[in-house]
Design a protein that fits this description.
This protein has helices at residues 56-64, 97-107, 112-117, 119-126, 141-154, 171-185, 198-204, 222-242, and strands at residues 7-19, 29-41, 45-49, 71-76, 82-85, 159-163, 190-195, 207-212, 215-220. The chain starts with 6 loop residues before the first strand and ends with a helix. The chain is globular and about 50 Å long. It has a domain at 1-81 and 194-243: 3-Layer(aba) Sandwich (Rossmann fold), CATH 3.40.50.300. The protein is α/β, with parallel strands linked by helices and 243 residues long. A 6-stranded mixed beta sheet has the order 5-6-7-3-8-9, sandwiched between helices. It has a 3-stranded antiparallel beta sheet with strand order 2-1-4.
């Protein structure tokens, strides 16, 4: 990958910590990420796997510029922008689905003209029908997730950051969402895909990073890394049963 592609993103010894209410824990600080270094190449799909709570979402938020590292450097290639595909960015309960889609798309980097141009596509793909013009506060959780996913999907950015989002909606919509994301990923889109589902990551990614307790345990071939991760999870589950 590195021989044929340009680096679009680089993290150098990035750490993030915050003050903890538990005074006895490392002098009152909780370390979420610890000296993480990685590179992202133009056009690749990079998978980030790991158990819940190991820092995967925090890593995406650092890449997106939502959070700043406590130590280290996050460097995006000049002129490139990243958008975090997460549910409900900027959603306001009293506004309609249409207005929320417009605002959310603009927050994720689209101009007002661009966002307006694909509102009908958002309505159609999300399958909201007349509810598209109703306040979001009246939506079910499934309707809200479909609107949020579709809005983020329609937004075009240099680096797309996907955070555990392919489980949205019912079985029909999950299949539709997965097909849409696979189409996006197999194109020229640069993607960072976070999940704890090793099989999904193995199928969709060119390279995989295994994150554990805030640091990188392994990096490389999707099959090799996900297999090692699955074995680790199995051992941990067996140990817990033995206890």
């Amino acid at each position: 990958m590195s021989e044929n592609k340009h680096i679009v993103l680089e993290l150098t010894e990035v750490s993030l910590s915050y003050h903890s209410a538990r005074k006895t824990f490392d002098r009152g600080r909780h370390h979420v990420l610890k000296d993480v270094s990685m590179q992202l190449y133009d056009g690749e799909t990079l998978g980030i796997i790991g158990r819940n709570g190991v820092g995967k979402t925090t890593l995406l938020q650092l890449i997106a510029g939502i959070l700043a590292p406590t130590r280290g450097q996050v460097k995006m290639h000049s002129g490139k922008c990243a958008s975090l595909l997460t549910l409900g960015l900027g959603f306001k309960p009293d506004l309609s689905g249409r207005d929320n889609a417009l605002l959310s798309a603009m927050l994720q980097g689209s101009s007002r003209q661009q966002a307006t141009s694909f509102l009908n596509d958002i309505k159609e793909f999300s399958e909201l029908g007349d509810s598209f013009t109703e306040p979001v506060k009246n939506y079910s959780a499934g309707m809200r997730s479909r609107l949020a996913f579709t809005t983020a999907l329609m937004t075009h950015v240099d680096v797309l950051l996907i955070d555990e989002i392919l489980s949205v909606g019912d079985a029909h919509f999950r299949g539709k969402a997965l097909t849409a994301m696979q189409s996006r990923i197999t194109g020229e889109q640069t993607v960072v895909f976070v999940s704890h589902m090793a099989d999904q990551v193995e199928k969709m990614c060119d390279r995989v990073i295994w994150l554990e307790d805030g640091h990188i345990v392994a990096e490389g071939d999707p099959g090799e890394v996900t297999s090692a991760y699955a074995e680790s999870v199995a051992r941990m589950n067996n140990d817990n049963v033995a206890k």
